[in-house]
Amino acid sequence: MLVRGEDELALIPRYFDLLVYLIEHRHEAVHRRDIFDHVWSDVVVSDSALSQAIRTIRRTLGDDSREPRYIRTISRHGYRFVFDGVVEEPDDMAVAASAALKGPPSVRSAGLSGPRESTPGDPFEPLLEIVTRASHDANGEEAQREAAELLHALGTSEALRRLGTRPRHAFARALLRDARWDSPRAGAVPLLGGPAAIATAGALIGLRLRRAARIVAARWLGASIGSGLAGAIAGAAGGLLLAAAPGSTAPVAVVPVLAAIGWCCGAIGGAAVGAGLSVAEAVARSQRTIALVVGAAVAGGAVGAAVQWLGQLTLAALVGVHVATGGGVEGLVLGGMAGLGYAAATSRTEGGLAAPRGRRRVRVAALTAAACGLGALALSVAGRPLVGGTIHAIAEASQGSQAALTPLGRIIGEPDFGPISRAVIGVGEGALFGAGLALGLTRRP
Predict the structure, then answer these.
(1) CA 264, CA 229: separation in Å to the nearest integer?
(2) CA–CA separation, 245 vs 166, rounded Å?
(3) Which partner from 98, 118, 153, 417 sits 20 to 30 angstroms from 263, CA to CA?
């Protein structure tokens, strides 16, 4: 607990952990990287998240960044807790009120300390003016964020009532909804049923994407690389089995060819699904599972449909082969299942984009792989070809091709590349894709 006198000062758990960490390491300046690794160890967040946390802690303590009494900014390094009157007592002793912490009795007065105390009349109005005005730089955005948190401290419902439908109210509502996650006493800021719900939702998405743009881009790239490597492994393994299968006429050269095809298909699919997952995770704080499933499914389906159309057009134009290749439906199903598995494995993630470590990361990869494997099985049973089935169909339709997968069916026990062979190959493809996607997506910078 954080108390001043007999009053408890509220902080969200992660901000409280940060304050404790700084106090525990008060004899040194703590690097920003160490703070991220300790306080945000299970998620990745933007640099602004740490600045926001420090600003909130300072406001709660009644501290001033220009003349710090508690937390000092160390330029290009991090932060240091500089108050030298810290007394450590055993946990079983009564909490004593320290003279150093005496001051205004509540987070409201601490938050409204400074120049705003001299503002006569309504304390809501100057804050509402800040959140509804246009901001053109980082300092202005920080001031708006702080004003939104102070409005929550004064009373969320009253702030919304007074906000009404004044100019830029949709942006202000989005800001209040976003800030409520960092304000322990904040009330609800509903989107549905509120004025300008669509505009508010759009402003909220814009706010969160701007803050997490760099992280989203890095995770999208990681997902693409991870899925590409998984596709290359699947292609190479299939090529080796095909070349070594009894009765096969496929040369060893088929191994790098199938590996390259697997890499391309995996990288494209991973880029699509990874982008959908990253954007959905950055944007959604409530209804996270639904957002992840829908985001991954829509992105996978859209890119899959585009690749399907382009692939069929290319085959028909260049070699005169007309084959019903997969793409749109497959991307939709695998994307949705990847989103479901990833959401289930990271359901306890709060305050950022999931970045589990060690066994937890392996668990995320395993659950995502299992979900994608089930999706691939359903597609195979429905007669929808994945990469292996598409390659076999193209080879069967092409004269003189040595890439038909019939020998793989014989290894499994079928006379041809039949339904069991398609299911086994498809499940393997789906599981490898899901594992590579999750490992690439959760790679911690």
Answers:
(1) 9
(2) 73
(3) 417
**Separation between Cα atoms, residue 195 and residue 84, nearest integer Å:** 50
Which residue carries 């190479």 as its tokens? 236
Structure token digits, residue 40: 């945000």
- What number is the average pLDDT over the span 254-269? 92
Q: What are the backbone dihedrals phi and psi of residue 101, each rounded to the nearest 5 degrees, phi first? A: -100, 5
How open is the CA angle 398-401-407, to the nearest 5 degrees?
120
pLDDT for 350-406, tens place per residue? 888 999 999 999 999 999 999 999 999 999 999 888 888 888 778 777 766 766 777
3-state helix/strand/coil string of the chain: CCEECCEECCCCHHHHHHHHHHHHCCCCCEEHHHHHHHHCCCEECCHHHHHHHHHHHHHHHCCCCCCCCCEEEECCCEEEECCCCCCCCCCCCCCCCCHHHCCCCCHHHHHCCHHHHHCCCCCHHHHHHHHHCCCCCHHHHHHHHHHHHHHHHHHHHHHHHHHCCCCCHHHHHHHHHHHHHHCCCCCCCCCCCCCCHHHHHHHHHHHHHHHHHHHHHHHHHHHHHHHHHHHHHHHHHHHHHHHHCCCCCCCCCHHHHHHHHHHHHHHHHHHHHHHHHHHHHHHCCCCHHHHHHHHHHHHHHHHHHHHHHHHHHHHHHHCCCCCCCCCHHHHHHHHHHHHHHHHHHCCCCCCCEECCCHHHHHHHHHHHHHHHHHHHHHHHHCCCCCHHHHHHHHHHHCCCCCCCCHHHHHHHCCCCCCHHHHHHHHHHHHHHHHHHHHHHHCCCC
C-beta separation of 32 from 77 below 8 A: yes
Cα separation, 367 vs 141, whole angstroms:
39
Instruction: Set out the domains of the chain in order of their start, with CATH numbers.
Output: 1-117 (1.10.10.10), 119-195 (no CATH), 213-441 (no CATH)
| pLDDT tens, position by position, 38-53 | 999 989 998 889 999 9
- Distance, in Å, from the CA atom of 385 to the CA atom of 234, rounded to the nearest integer, reads 15
Structure tokens at 75: 């330029």
Which residue do the tokens 């549905």 mark? 192
What residues does 72 pair with on adjacent strands? 80
For the four alpha carbons of 201, 207, 213 and 214, in that order, the dihedral sign comes to negative
Please state which of the ranges 23-27, 100-104, 121-125, 219-223 shows the lowest mean pLDDT.
100-104
| Residue 79 burial class via C-beta count within 10 angstroms: exposed 0-12, middle 13-18, buried 19 and up | buried
